[in-house]
Amino acid sequence: MDLYEKIKELAAQKNISIRQLEEKLGFANATLRRWNKNKPSVDKIQAVAKFFNVSVDYLLGNEEIEVPKFSPELLEAIDNAEGYSGQPMDDHDKEIIKGLLAGYFAGKNKK
Fold it and tell me: Distance (Å, rounded) from C-alpha 77 to C-alpha 7?
């Protein structure tokens, strides 16, 4: 997965568009999309890494993020969970919940 694809994936996990990310970081419109063809500056990569709380090495493909292993019971609870409207959650929402839990457990383990 290239740099732009990783950023798209991270943005989707945070439920933010690429354009919204560019605005939050003070980047010009379509800056991130051009990273498929042009090499970005180190300070811009660092800004993206800091925003998503990942390393520059992860963004550049030099390291992987350890994906937490959830218990089968927790996965089943997430799969069967309902949204605030009482409707079943879609896969995107379930992935957001898993990401939030992963971040929570990772923070607990560092203390």
Answer: 29
Count of beta carbons in the 10 Å neighbourhood of residue 73: 8
Would you state the structure tokens that stand for residue 93, as one six-digit string? 């929402």
Over the Cα atoms of the chain, what is R_g? Answer: 16
Phi, psi at 38, each rounded to 5°: -110, 145
What whole-number distance in Å separates Cα of residue 47 and Cα of residue 66?
22
Check if the beta carbon of residue 22 is closer than 8 Å to that of residue 45: no
Tens of pLDDT, residues 54-107: 888 888 888 776 556 677 788 888 888 887 788 888 877 888 888 888 777 776
Q: What are residue 14's phi and psi, to 5 degrees?
A: -90, 0
Single pTM value for the model: 0.58
